[in-house]
Amino acid sequence: MASEDTKRDPYDYPREWEADVLLSDGGTVHLRPVIPSDADGLVAFHGRLSERTRYFRYFGAYPRIPQRDLERFSVVDHHDRVAFVALLGDDIVAVGRYERLDQGPSAEVAFVVDDAHQGRGLGSILLEHLAAAASESGLRRFVAEVLAENAGMVRVFRDAGYQVSREIEEGVLHLEFDIDPTEESLAVARSREQAAEARSVHNLLHPKSVAVIGASTDPTKIGYVALTNLLSADFAGTVYPVNPEHKSVRGVRAYPSVVDIPEDVDLALVAVPAEAVESVLDGALAKGVKTLLIVSGGFAEAGPHGLHAELRLVGEARAHGMRVVGPNALGVLNTDASVRLNATLAPRLPARGRTGFFCQSGALGTAILADAEARGLGLSTFVSAGNRADVSGNDLLQYWETDPATDLVLLYLESFGNPRKFARLARRLARTKPVVAVKSGRHAVRPQLAATSAEVDESSVQALFEQAGVVRVDTLAQLFDTALVFAHQPLPAGPRIAIVGNSSAIGLLAADTARAHGLRLTADPVDVGPQASPEEFAAAVREALNSPETDALVVVFVPPLAIPGTAYARALREAVVEMDKNKPIVSTFLAVEGVPDELAVLSEDGVPTRGSVPSYPSPERAVNALARVVRYAAWRQRPQGNLVRPAGLHAEQAQVIVGELLAAEGGKTTLLSDDDVVRLLGCYGIDVVPFRVVTSADEAVKAAEELGFPVTLKAVDERLRGRPDLAGVRLDLSSVDGVRRAYLDLREISGDDDVYVQRMAPKGLSCVIGLQDDPSFGTLVSFGLSGLVSTLLGDRAYRAVPLTDVDAATLLREPRTSPLLTGYRGDEPADLAALQDIVLRVAALAEDNPEVRSMTLDPILASPDGAFVANARIVLGPPPSRPDTGPRRLRPINAPA
User: Sorted alphabetically, which InterPro entries does this protein's record hold (predicted)?
Assistant: First the structure.
């Protein structure tokens, strides 16, 4: 039970509980704790409720709120009595509250939703946020009284994923359940999150009507271009130009303002100067537009004033139920024949395909679309989100996961707004659909991470992307090279490749590249010779594909002088289509980049589709693309593993310790003392080999006797850590005289009286496990062997939190020096299970305590008898603003994009 002095004052407002939330139909509302000035809003809300809804909530007519109840409803302590209101604009559309029972760990919970907004998922959202607030206030259990005939409310509790006990008496259901998150409740919340975010993007990409605000008659204006592109694509819905100075634009009736449009508007494309966007927003809000697409620039990219305007714009839009794409966006596309939406500044609607593309950069968007068309890559949907003030790549990942028209996802990313969420979504999506990403700005570290970020080498960055199943490439050219294989060819069963061609030199280039990527050649490259006929060439292809040893085929071809190369290309395509061996094929054919007509299998729309053979200007590019596909296929075949939390974790105790330590430092970043490190690690079952800090030889001897001989002595001075030549570490000190002499020597060398005396751990290999921040992936767990050589070579492996058991196991085996742990040259293997257990405990600590900005366990002595932590260092600080835990909420509008 919380003491009185820990309770909030009624006016001690918990601003951190505020959230924009996404509802099941893709709309938004603003959720915040109730405040006394909400009294009038509560009265108005109550007045809009139907008699039936009031009866269900209050078990009686309750036609009006008495003054005494109104004060109790609007004035709460934000601890034992908590209430949230859901706001759409200035109107309260739902209320949820709990009240602690008898100063104990239980509270009664209830909520009510405006009749016009029932069925939008507000009940489950309120329950999640109330449960989170209750947990923070020390509550552990909710109880609820619900009329048995109130099926909707019963369903909210039943479907939340908690273990609910039920009793019924005289038509009233008494429900009780623990509010600690369970695997089922988390899965329910994530499923609802996915459905809501996907629905929100569906609304964006499937509008029935589009208003072009700023539609212009001047061909040099973007408002003219945007309207022209919509009309040229033959949009299946209705287009409404908005221009107060003209009765029509491009032959289409225009309206002075969006509010003058007689029908509903699903999507408003805004193409007016930045300073006019705010006035446009007012009309869009009044009209009830679902999504605002802002192609105008002059916002965050233009400086602090633009950023302020952008934040205000998005905050107002979300508060009124609207989502925003942009500002500074190129726009959105949907090639579906029933939609035909080109709401972009790019002149042509791309060919229809099954590839979804998300691009942050508006400047690159047009070039990307042109490149896709030139390469023969059709698109299903395309979104260029510009500044990503609201809609982001994570939203698109949620949509594409269940979009039946998309089989492949391409991403051009400059930064991550929520890296942990990106990793979670990408990992889930990549299990069914390939995700290929080019990430720019890889060497940039955000200022807010500079103090706790360490440089991660490129091979480790690659491993982190592969952990999430994302195929990472370095350039847009590589992005399209790889996409062509995924879009047109099947996944390989393994890494065994055959090479067939009519040039031994080019065949050897392909073979060398394949070996460099770890691919296995089934045999030497087959050279049919420059004089071979198309039929002989096709026969060699058939033989290679027929071999059970072949998982994939590389075809390298130089056109002979006597016979046109197109004949060979047709022979190759016919052989492949005829055999249908479900093995991927890439080629270097006719020096063509993309899918030449002779190698294309066309869809009904005349666009290259599955079965088309992609061609590359060089064998190296062909094999590089194939190698990425092979690695992805191997990732898909590997066990996913399970998110594991070892036994004996005390997360609540750890959070109390972290809160106390940060509060003592005024919330500033701080290095923990040794005692506090031991306390925090102990909450997660990570024991540090016992030690004492002493200041005299006599104390050193006493400590050694208490700890038990043999002991280790080392300097306390941080400057001398890891410097045995200066720190004067003495090992295996088994006598009183040895300890006394060692102390005196060490004090003389270090110039410091303070010395560690530590019990001697079993001898073993010295390892290091760490936590650090990364601007792309969030919190990382690292592992490697200690020592100068490992540090010099950067021999560390990394995984992003959260970790599965498979992640932890592979982390230990990834460093180049890891064979030393597994019995290299006949040594007895270290206890890898004990090391893996520490890795999982460290990951759990990071997951529960984002305030832990960095941590190093070094050395950990890995031996056949276990793994023993000899030293630890932890830095606490304000948590990064990129949460992926807690109740569902949209990314805060002031969080970095």
Answer: Acyl_CoA_acyltransferase, ATP-grasp, ATP_grasp_subdomain_1, CoA-bd, GNAT_dom, NAD(P)-bd_dom_sf, Succ_CoA_lig_flav_dom, Succinyl-CoA_synth-like
DSSP output for 233-295: TT-SSEEEEE-TT-SEETTEE-BSSGGG-SS--SEEEE-S-HHHHHHHHHHHHHHT-SEEEE-
pLDDT at 896 over 80: no
- Strands 470-473 vs 435-439: parallel, antiparallel or unpaired: parallel
pLDDT given for residue 880 in this prediction: 73
Q: In 442-571, which ranges are E strands?
A: 470-473, 496-501, 520-521, 526-527, 552-556
Please give the single-letter amino acid code of residue 144.
A
Residue for token pair 């061996």 = 581
Q: How much is the pLDDT for 448?
A: 39
199-484 topology per CATH: Rossmann fold (3.40.50)
Please determine whether the domains at 199-484 and 490-637 fall in the same fold group of CATH.
yes
- What pLDDT score does 845 carry? 96
Instruction: Provide the CB-side half-sphere exposure for 378 (13 A, CA).
Output: 24
Whole-number pLDDT of residue 577: 87
pLDDT band at 1 (very low <50, low <70, confident <90, very high): very low
Type of residue found at 317: A
Query: Whole-angstrom Cα distance, residue 839 to residue 609?
Result: 45
- Structural domain boundaries of the chain? 15-180, 199-484, 490-637, 639-689+762-891, 691-760
Answer yes or no: is pLDDT of 8 > 50. no
490-637, CATH topology level: Rossmann fold (3.40.50)
* pTM of this structure: 0.89
CATH class of the domain at 691-760: alpha beta
Q: Residue 740 CB: number of other CB atoms within 10 A?
A: 17
Three-state SS string over 133-188 comes to: HHHHCCCCEEEEEEECCCHHHHHHHHCCCCCCEEEEECCEEEEEEECCCCHHHHHH
In 360-483, at which residue ranges do the beta strands (DSSP E only) sit?
Answer: 379-384, 408-413, 435-439, 470-473
**Backbone conformation region of residue 751, classed left if phi is above 0, alpha if psi is from -120 to 50, else beta:** left
Question: Per residue in 719-756, pLDDT tens?
Answer: 554 454 544 556 667 889 989 988 888 888 777 788 88
What are the phi and psi torsion angles at 11 (to 5°)?
Answer: -105, 5
Topology at the third CATH level for domain 639-689+762-891: D-amino Acid Aminotransferase; Chain A, domain 1 (3.30.470)
Distances (CA, A) of 702 to 580, 675, 708, 735, 738: 79, 19, 10, 12, 13
* Separation of first and last alpha carbons in the chain: 40
Cα 867 to Cα 414, 685, 757, 762, 769: the distances in Å are: 40, 13, 20, 9, 11
The alpha carbon torsion through 649, 783, 440, 512 (nearest 10 deg) reads -140
State yes or no: pLDDT of 164 exceeds 50. Answer: yes
CA atoms within 13 A on the CB side of 88: 21
Q: Are 317 and 285 in contact (CB under 8 A)?
A: yes
β-pair partners for 867: 862
Mean pLDDT score across all residues of the chain: 90
My answer on whether omega of the bond before 105 falls inside 30° of 0, hence cis, is: no
CB 390 within 8 A of CB 365: no
Contact 623, 483 (CB under 8 A): no
